[in-house]
Amino acid sequence: MPASLNLKRGFGQNLLISEEHRRTVARCAFTTSTYQTESSVVIEIGAGPGGLTSALFSEGVRNVFAIEQDRQFIPMLNSLKKKLTETCTLNIIEGDARKLNFYELTRAIYSDANSKSVPIIVVGNLPYSAATAILQNLLNCSAKFNAMALMFQKEVAQRICASIDKREGTKGYAKKYGKGYGRLSVLTQMHYHAEVCCNFPPQAFFPTPKVHSQVVKFIPNSVYVSENDYKIVGELTSLFFSYKRKKIATILRNAYKNKNINNSANPNNNSSNSVWLKAGETVDIDFSKRPEDIPTQSWLAWARAVGAILDARK
């Protein structure tokens, strides 16, 4: 690592030291994928001094959009850009990936390629402090990427990949892959199948973090999720997973009693006429269960039922 680097704690920056590790991350996005590196456009989040960026080009990628918020790294990325061959393109975007409009970026990529079929892959060694917010922005961008490979601290990675189905089997397996099922799992798995691709110990990074890290591979599923579906699922899960050990019925009853449901999905404060209650009954949500016992597809069905009731009232 360059001695002149001034890594900022507020940015949660931990850089991969080894070139082999960086190339492992670069390869993750294309593992079990039908997309070729040469024909794909890669959006890299948190490019830093360009270590992973260089690894992407070494693995055969020809077009990278590198997003970086820390200005000290921009000259290093520009230096890398000048060293590339004529067949490679590096587009540098200085900005915060938590706020970036990824939908507009994908539109620009399609326009530049003169094709909406060009594969767009997202890769990144995400800063720990912003990783969840970045993922939520990617999920909320109204576009499914062809694949993503993103680095998270281990605990967050396992929450993303957790599902009710993975609780079955041995106790150790269930503890590892089912225990963390929650709002982040639901929001992710509406759009993507997520699984851990590789693991990295703290010693793989500079500065050395106190936690292990994992790369999660995201492959889009075949389910269509509208912006409104995603918004309502977000509102539902925001409330219910805040009290995930309580039963759905209890959470609803307390929420209406305290009048703390205030969102577009649920305009009424009368529990007997609740949009959420009526919609849940329509799709057979078991109100005696806890939020962590409701699978992703049921949250989506509930949200769509809420949307249908609201549409009928317009």
Question: What are its keywords?
Answer:
314 residues, alpha/beta, Rossmann fold, Helicase, Ruva Protein, domain 3, 2 domains, seven-stranded mixed β-sheet, two-stranded antiparallel ribbon, 12 helices, 9 strands, 39% helix, globular
- At CATH level 3, the topology of the largest domain is Rossmann fold
Order of helices and strands: EHEHEHEHEHEHHHEEEHHHH
Q: Which structural class should the secondary elements be placed in? A: alpha/beta
Report the strand count. Answer: 9
What is the rounded distance between the termini? 59 Å
Strand composition percent: 15-25%
Shape: globular
Return the average pLDDT rounded to an integer: 87
Number of domains: 2
Strands of the biggest beta sheet: in what spatial order?
Answer: 4-3-2-5-6-9-7
- Helicity, as a percent range: 25-40%
CATH architecture heading of the largest domain:
3-Layer(aba) Sandwich
CATH homology-level superfamily of the largest domain = Vaccinia Virus protein VP39
Extract low-pLDDT stretches: 169-177, 264-273
Largest sheet: 7 strands, mixed
Q: How large, in whole angstroms, is the Cα Rg? A: 21 Å
Number of helices: 12
CATH class of the largest domain: Alpha Beta
